[in-house]
Every structure is written in structure tokens, then in C-alpha cells.
């Protein structure tokens, strides 16, 4: 798995991270009845990555966006950031994808999605070619074709992280996003280095939804065992935290670790939590070269996002990551720093 950085002439390391997915126009109704409107999708990824990076690091969003929103979004979210290079954002004549998200109790939600953009072409992926890491986030579920990713993988040595998200979901006659098994999911996972999926996405792939700690560990190792070249699998579970399985020990033995959810006083909106988790993990891997430390950073950022107010609040959250780790995860962080690789898991092929 490639987790390398590049060096500047002065010897300072820098990274280029591409984010492949969709920028959505979201209408959100919280479980308390509050209604919010914002742009989302990979904006959460990009804004979080830009806030996490430093120096000569660059973030390269690769997506399509309706021509009517192109100027507003690129200026509002990317215009003031010296880290974001928006050359991979393409204006779509069809318009911006839209999503109406309604939250119910226990974190359940329904989504009604209108897709107007076309899948990205190999030519549109060119800005990602020289990146050191690539985060693929299936927001509308059809951003990339399997053959497009296969061709890209053949020409790139970057660390590719996949957020399964809406891969494999379909839209019914009412526009509602319906859970379903991702077609050829093993082939998708075979083309990436690391993957994350929540408990519902795992259920679609493995056939059952994890609920207990043992079941989350089994799900993470199950994803890892399903694909020979996959190096890290993470299963997120909202209030259940995140469980990571990896085989990066050199002898291909599998280790697992559970990271409890960040304790917060009140959850405001969980929209974008998975996106923030992905951003934290990708930067954590580039910076620490350690999937366990990266999962810790990702968990904290995801938790902070749940009490924030959208992409605009993310930069302020970044400054709280390390203090929150020291406050809530000091012992676990110290174990990781001292060489803890995770708990031994049952053998995975």
C-alpha cells in the first residue's frame, strides 16, 4: 500500500490528495424538525482535508457540479484556500445533484436524490494522476465506472481509500435511495488499498448488520478476507464507534482495534460524519503511516462534526482533534505510540 509523501527542494514533505465524488445540494430535516439547506457531499471531505493539511500540501477535488452553482460553490468553499486546487471540478450542463435528507429516531434517515451529473470520464480523472493519495466517495453511487477505476489503478501507485457510502444503492420511483448490494463489490475493493463502510453498507455486502463488538470485528475482518490485496477495512457504527482490521504487520497476520465514539454533549447533525472520518483517516495515514493512529484521528473528527453546523464549521474543529485525543483517548493513543498493532484476530486468507 502506498502511503508515501513527496519532498520539496528543501526536504519538507508534502502530499497531494484527490477527492473523487459528488458535490450535492442538500436539504436536511433533523429529527427535531429543524430544516437546513447547504451544499454537501465531498465538500465535507475537501474542507476537512484542506483544514488538516499544511505547508505545500494540496487537495484536488474531482467532480461535476451544475454550471448554475459552479461559481458560487468554488468561490465560497475553495476560493480562499491556498491548499485546494479546483482544476478537477467540471461544470455540468445538466445541473447539480440534489438530496433531501430526513432524519428519524436512532439516527435513521431517508434520502430522496435527484442525479443530474454524468459519471466521470478517464480524461476527467487526469488531475488525480500525480496525487499521493486518492479518496473515492460514492455520494450519488455512480461517480465512477468499474472499468474506469481499473484503468486508473493500473496507472497509479497512490494510496486509494474507498468510502463505500452509496455504491450499489438504487433510486426508486419516488426518488428515494434504497439499500442494495453493491454490484461486483469485491472487484471494487480489489482496486483500493483501504476501505470504510458503515454497518448498513456492510450488511449489504456481507449479508448481516453488525450490532455487538464481536460482530463489528467479524465484519471488518470479513471485508479484509474477501479481497486478497485489501490492506485495511474499517466498519463505522455511529454511537458504536469504529472498528479497524488490518494486515500491515509484514507477516500478513490480521490485527483489529476498536475506537469508541467521541463523547459529546448533544448531537446536532450527523450529515458528513462519514466524510469527515474518511478525510481524517486519509490524512492520518499520510502523516502517521499508522492505520490505528489514523483511525483515532478520524473518529475524533467525525464526532466533532456531529456537534457542528456543516462544512463551514470544520476548520475550527481541526484545532480540537489533538486536545480531544489527549482528553478521551490518552491511554489508547499511548499504546499505539508504543507499538501496539491491535488485537490478534482469527486468520484471514
Offer a few descriptive terms.
alpha/beta; ten-stranded mixed sheet; globular; four-stranded mixed sheet; UDP-N-acetylmuramoyl-L-alanine:D-glutamate ligase; 349 residues
Strand percentage, roughly?
A: 15-25%
What overall geometry do the principal axes of the alpha carbons give? globular
**Major sheet attributes:** 10 strands, mixed
Name the strands of the widest sheet in spatial order: 7-6-3-10-11-14-15-16-17-18
Description:
The strands form 4 sheets. The chain has a 10-stranded mixed β-sheet with strand order 7-6-3-10-11-14-15-16-17-18, with helices on both faces. The chain has 11 helices and 18 strands. The protein starts with 5 loop residues before the first strand and ends in a 5-residue tail after the last strand. Strand 8 (98-103) and strand 9 (109-114) form a beta hairpin. The protein has helices at 42-52, 67-78, 146-154, 185-189, 199-206, 213-226, 273-288, 291-306, 314-318, 321-328, 330-337; strands at 6-7, 13-14, 16-20, 23-29, 35-41, 58-66, 89-92, 98-103, 109-114, 133-137, 159-163, 170-171, 177-178, 194-198, 232-236, 242-246, 255-259, 343-344. The chain is of the alpha/beta class and 349 residues long. Mean pLDDT is 88; it is low at 1-12. It has a single domain, classed as Ribokinase (UDP-N-acetylmuramoyl-L-alanine:D-glutamate ligase).
Amino acid at each position: 500500500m502506498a502511503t508515501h509523501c513527496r519532498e520539496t527542494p528543501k526536504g519538507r514533505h508534502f502530499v497531494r490528495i484527490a477527492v473523487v465524488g459528488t458535490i450535492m445540494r442538500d436539504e436536511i430535516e433533523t429529527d427535531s424538525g429543524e430544516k437546513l439547506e447547504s451544499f454537501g457531499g465531498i465538500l465535507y471531505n475537501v474542507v476537512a482535508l484542506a483544514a488538516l493539511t499544511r505547508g505545500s500540501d494540496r487537495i484536488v477535488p474531482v467532480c461535476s457540479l451544475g454550471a448554475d452553482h459552479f461559481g458560487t460553490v468554488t468561490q465560497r468553499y475553495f476560493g480562499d484556500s491556498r491548499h485546494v486546487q479546483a482544476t478537477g471540478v467540471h461544470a455540468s450542463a445538466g445541473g447539480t445533484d440534489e438530496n433531501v435528507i430526513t432524519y428519524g429516531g436512532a439516527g435513521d434517515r431517508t434520502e430522496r436524490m435527484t442525479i443530474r451529473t454524468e459519471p466521470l470520464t478517464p480524461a476527467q480523472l487526469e488531475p488525480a494522476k500525480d496525487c499521493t493519495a486518492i479518496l473515492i466517495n460514492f455520494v450519488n453511487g455512480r461517480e465512477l465506472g468499474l472499468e474506469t477505476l481499473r484503468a486508473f489503478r493500473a496507472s497509479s501507485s497512490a494510496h486509494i481509500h474507498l468510502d463505500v457510502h452509496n455504491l450499489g444503492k438504487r433510486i426508486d420511483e419516488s426518488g428515494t435511495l434504497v439499500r442494495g448490494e453493491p454490484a461486483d463489490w469485491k472487484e471494487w475493493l480489489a482496486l483500493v488499498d483501504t476501505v470504510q463502510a458503515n454497518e448498513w453498507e456492510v450488511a449489504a455486502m456481507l449479508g448481516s448488520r453488525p450490532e455487538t463488538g464481536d460482530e463489528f470485528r467479524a465484519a471488518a475482518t470479513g471485508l479484509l478476507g474477501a479481497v486478497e490485496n485489501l490492506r485495511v477495512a474499517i466498519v463505522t457504527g455511529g454511537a458504536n464507534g469504529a472498528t479497524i482490521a488490518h494486515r500491515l504487520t509484514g507477516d500478513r497476520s490480521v490485527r483489529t482495534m476498536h475506537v469508541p465514539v467521541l463523547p459529546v454533549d448533544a448531537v446536532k447533525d450527523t450529515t458528513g460524519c462519514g466524510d469527515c472520518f474518511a478525510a481524517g483517516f486519509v490524512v492520518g495515514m499520510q502523516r502517521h503511516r499508522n492505520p490505528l493512529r489514523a483511525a483515532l484521528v478520524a473518529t475524533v473528527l467525525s464526532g466533532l462534526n456531529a456537534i457542528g453546523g456543516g462544512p463551514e464549521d470544520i476548520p475550527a474543529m481541526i484545532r480540537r482533534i489533538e486536545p480531544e485525543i489527549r482528553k478521551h483517548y490518552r491511554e489508547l493513543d499511548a499504546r499505539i505510540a508504543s507499538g501496539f498493532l491491535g488485537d490478534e484476530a482469527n486468520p484471514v486468507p
